[in-house]
TrEMBL record:
Cofactor: NAD(+)
Reaction catalysed by this enzyme: UDP-alpha-D-glucose = UDP-alpha-D-galactose
Catalytic class of the enzyme: isomerase
Entry keywords, A to Z: Carbohydrate metabolism, Galactose metabolism, Isomerase, NAD
InterPro entries xrefs: Epimerase_deHydtase (IPR001509), NAD(P)-bd_dom_sf (IPR036291)
Protein's name in the database: UDP-glucose 4-epimerase
GO function terms (MF aspect): UDP-glucose 4-epimerase activity
Chain ranges of the NAD-dependent epimerase/dehydratase domain: 9-45
């Protein structure tokens, strides 16, 4: 994860987005396929960042227990912060995220508890 970035706690800051917000953004895109011709590029994101350590703390809160981790050297080429500017998609389509980091972590933990080994290749009926 690296802990020597020029960020408040030294870890990388990223724009973590809930998977349902991503799906909703793509659903809204389908509603606007015929708005205009040509390629349009939109960033989907919250517009705010959280550090790796903030993410770990939020997951620990969702889980209800500390989560062990180990700090490793930073990966070559990683930038200190990477945050989406979703202003264009909000202006064009009125889309924005509705779920925060706490909801993302709680829902991810809920999914993990229900599917500890993920989805099986051939679901049982």
């Amino acid at each position: 994860m690296g802990d020597d970035y020029p960020t408040p706690d030294g870890t990388g800051v990223r724009d973590y987005i809930h998977v349902v917000d991503v799906a909703d953004g793509h659903r809204v895109a389908l509603d606007h396929l015929d708005d205009e011709r040509g390629l349009r590029v939109f960033n989907l994101g919250t517009g705010s960042g959280a550090s790796v350590l903030e993410l770990m703390a939020e997951f620990a809160s969702a889980v209800g227990a500390p989560i062990p981790y180990r700090v490793e050297a930073r990966r070559p080429g990683d930038v200190p912060a990477l945050i989406a500017d979703a202003g264009r998609v909000e202006r064009a389509w009125g889309w924005r995220t509705t779920r925060d980091l706490a909801a993302m972590c709680a829902d991810a933990w809920h999914f993990q508890r229900l599917h500890p080994t993920g989805y099986s290749a051939s679901p049982t009926v």
